[in-house]
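@channel sequence for tomorrow's demo:
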Amino acid sequence: MPSSQALVAAVVALLSYVDRSRMRRAHAGLPRYRTYGNPALPPVVLIPGLDGCASFYAGALPELTLERFVVVYELPLVSAANRDGYTFSYLARGLADVLDELDIDAAPVVGESFGGVVAMHAALEHETRVTRLLLLSSLAKTELTTEVWLKKTFALPVVRVIGRAFPNVAQTIFAYVHASDVVEASEPEWVTNFFIKEASWAHHASVMARLSIVIPLDITARVVHLRQKTRLVYGADDTFTGATTDALLALLPDADKVALPGGHLPHLTSPKAFARLVLDFVAGK
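structure tokens (generated this afternoon):
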């Protein structure tokens, strides 16, 4: 008869298998991009943030598609094949490949937070493919608040360990821990709930890989060479990347800054205002 330790080990192994299988099924066959609207209209590219939650743009899509063919670049997932080369340059090359596949010579690019860093790499390394940049709650150098540093130092290692066996559980924990960074206490409860729901379904290994490249980020010496007209959009109450937005503005040669109500995710809380901002900017207004 098996010992109690063997039974516990078997149950844990079974639960881990179920959890990892669920993660694989949830993300199997995901497209490299999604398109919305009329392909005959001028294009605009949207890049989601760290968790890859393109759903945060959903509220803005009805307005955007009235005037633009919208391409949402789905951040590639990390795998055994690309793990060692999973860098911002790799993600920027993926964007250029999507434009090739869609036969788009060049387009304005909108990037949220982590996605804004991808957008800047694309603009620097594939300069002719990016006509304008709209960077939402983004950064050129990671600067951690005390609270975020504590989470990185003490909570993140625990999440990573759990994620080896239970990626869904670990991602849900991460979503709960990270929610207070990107949603301000003054914002409605639904914003926190929506963020946790969407971020909990993110591909955990990919989120961890993205954290590994954004935590040490410092491209301050490179962004001064951006030639594209750039607009920085931020939430007026954002305590997570508000300071990094100001720092980025000081570095860019041709940029302005516009505030929207809310915190780190103003495209989620003010989608129509965000869409109008995007459409006016990419049209040169």
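heads up for whoever presents: Residues 60 and 275 are 5 Å apart (CA to CA).
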